[in-house]
Amino acid sequence: MDRILQVGMAYQGSRTLLSAVELDVFTALSDGPLPLDALRDWVGLHPRGARDFLDSLVALGMLHRNGGIYSNTTETGRYLNRKSEDYIGGYLEMTATRSYGHWGHLTEALRTGRPQNEIRTGGDFFETLYRDSRALRGFLQAMTGLSRPSATALAAGFPWEERDTVADIGTAQGEFLRIVLNEHPRLRGIGFDLPIVEPIFAEHLARLAERTAFVAGDFLGDPLPAADVLVFGHILHGWDLDTKRMLLRKAYEALPEGGSVIVYGSLVDDGRRTNTHALLSSLTMLIETPAGGEHTPSECRNWMAEAGFGAVYTQRLTGTESMVCGTKLTRARAAHDAGRAAFTDPGRPGADRG
């Protein structure tokens, strides 16, 4: 029974954390611990609920309390303090203002298969977003927070020393490029996104202006930029199967021989039972998009192979995110691998079944 109630009432803890981000509780504690009254005044809380609210954050593991003095945990001080370079609160702010309400219509989405965001009332999220410069900046900042952990893992775990250029497809503010280029000074980066994003990209990467370029375009209709590595971070999940395959084919066409494509995000585990975050993210795509959804590493590897990529592999990046990488092999290597696969194919008459 306890597990049932814990899951069924989980929205209470979620809403408490989201409100703490909106109220800047963790930023208030960035310069050091504060007693209840001082923290309450800084944040602007009514006395009636302040103590219960802050102590709920303690119980949720989001704050420490020593006597009557509150302080950030190591994680909240790093990731939810607006002054920190690792701040991911923008993504949670977007969750609070958008996704939290839309998730209230999950039952209808499951019954109808239709999105429950602005589309539900005849609107379009992105058309509305692009008309509001403040909302657009907030959305791009949210994407920065979402991509930062995996970008950090990729900066350390991919053989960038063998590459000269990388293009980030759907780059938003360009946070992926900022992290990777800071770790690899000889690398140059290209941000590919819609024209309206360019000023925000240029501002975010001003210190790397000599090593970065912005290419304006729509990845659905325009060719992808040429680079040694093309990166799709949290992109494929927004589209149907045909579009996913089309984007990987376009990546193959844009890459030189020896070039690689990286797809990263919340990939559903192949057994579809352990990566809860990815499975719930796929339900978010049900709510937010006409045909999107998360995929498994095996599915992505198959799509890459269909597009022509070889040497395809999967690698864990964070607790909930992974990447799939494929390489456009040289013609000689591709022919060799194809011949070897044909020789060992157990379905081929006369093949070596070993």
Structural description of this entry:
Its EC number is 2.1.1.335. Residues 13-76 form the O-methyltransferase dimerisation domain. GO terms for molecular function: O-methyltransferase activity; protein dimerization activity. InterPro entries: COMT-like (IPR016461), COMT_C (IPR001077), COMT_dimerisation (IPR012967), SAM-dependent_MTases_sf (IPR029063), WH-like_DNA-bd_sf (IPR036388), WH_DNA-bd_sf (IPR036390). There is one protein chain. With 354 residues, the protein is an alpha/beta fold. It has two domains: 2-86, Winged helix-like DNA-binding domain superfamily/Winged helix DNA-binding domain (Arc Repressor Mutant, subunit A), CATH 1.10.10; 90-335, 3-Layer(aba) Sandwich (Rossmann fold). It is 48% helix and 14% strand. It is built from 16 helices and ten strands. Strands 6-5-4-7-8-10-9 form a seven-stranded mixed beta sheet, with helices on both faces. The protein has a three-stranded antiparallel beta sheet with strand order 1-3-2. Helix 2 (10-22) packs across helix 7. It is globular, with a radius of gyration of 23 Å. Residues 341-354 have low confidence and may be disordered.
- Sheet with most strands: 7 strands, mixed
Backbone structural class: alpha/beta
Specify the CATH architecture of the largest domain: 3-Layer(aba) Sandwich
State the CATH superfamily name of the largest domain: Vaccinia Virus protein VP39
CATH topology of the largest domain: Rossmann fold
Enzyme class: transferase
EC number: 2.1.1.335
Organism: Nocardia aurantia
Keywords: Methyltransferase, S-adenosyl-L-methionine, Transferase
